[in-house]
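Module 6 notes. Inverse folding takes a fixed backbone as the condition and produces residue identities as the prediction. Think of it as a translation problem where the source language is geometry and the target language is the twenty amino acids. Below is one complete input and output pair. Work through it position by position during the lab.
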């Protein structure tokens, strides 16, 4: 059975706590006499997280509908990995970050929202799967990468570990856990997106009271085979 893919819009993810991290899943062959591990192998590392979101009135209904579409552990949730200290939407994108990109005449959809706005950079040259550094061109967004930022290509997130400016628009970056090849000139999202599954059936429950406000936590793990 094909698993449904549900995109959770960034407008719903007003996160109170951000907990994205790489779970390396290291395995060892036991300890030597001195107490050190004989060898450690990272077995299929993946991203995990338990973002806690704040929901109010209509947002609660929209959230419940998305959770129902996911059908518990069956669904795959496409999530923007919100991380304000790695990439700040308000400072970098202005109105587009909040309302989306309008039509060419400046109008938006009847809901007041425009098309999804995703600031990107370009891969300068092809990048191999597993590479630990590459050069990027920030001309499309004009936003420089920063150490510790989570970025993604084709919904495969990776971590930026160091940044070295080559020019005003070209930057060399160190990366960890790049698990797909990136073609030359490909667009890389400055705010990471990933595909995740919930760790148990009860995730995402959103009980509320008379204030019609609630918080919900979605504990998820990355889907590695797509």
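Target side of the pair, the amino acids:
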């Amino acid at each position: 059975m094909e698993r449904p893919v549900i995109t959770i819009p960034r407008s719903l993810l007003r996160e109170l706590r951000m907990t994205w991290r790489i779970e390396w899943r290291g395995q060892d062959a036991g300890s030597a006499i001195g107490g050190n591990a004989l060898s450690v192998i990272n077995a299929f590392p993946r991203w995990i997280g338990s973002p806690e979101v704040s929901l109010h009135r209509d947002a609660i209904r929209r959230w419940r509908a998305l959770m129902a579409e996911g059908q518990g552990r069956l669904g795959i949730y496409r999530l923007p990995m919100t991380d304000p200290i790695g990439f700040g939407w308000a400072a970098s994108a202005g109105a587009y970050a909040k309302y989306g990109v309008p039509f060419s005449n400046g109008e938006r959809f009847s809901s007041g929202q425009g098309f999804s706005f995703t600031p990107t950079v370009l891969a300068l040259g092809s990048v191999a799967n597993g590479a630990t550094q590459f050069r990027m061109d920030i001309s499309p967004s004009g936003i420089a990468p920063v150490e510790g930022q989570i970025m993604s290509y084709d919904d495969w997130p990776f971590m930026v570990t160091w940044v070295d400016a080559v020019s005003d628009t070209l930057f060399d970056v160190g990366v960890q856990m790049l698990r797909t090849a990136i073609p030359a000139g490909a667009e890389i999202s400055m705010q990471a997106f990933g595909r995740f599954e919930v760790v148990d059936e009860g995730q995402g429950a959103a009980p509320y009271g008379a204030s019609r406000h609630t918080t919900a936590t979605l504990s998820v793990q990355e889907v590695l085979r797509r």
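Reference fact for the lab report: The first helix runs from residue 58 to 70.
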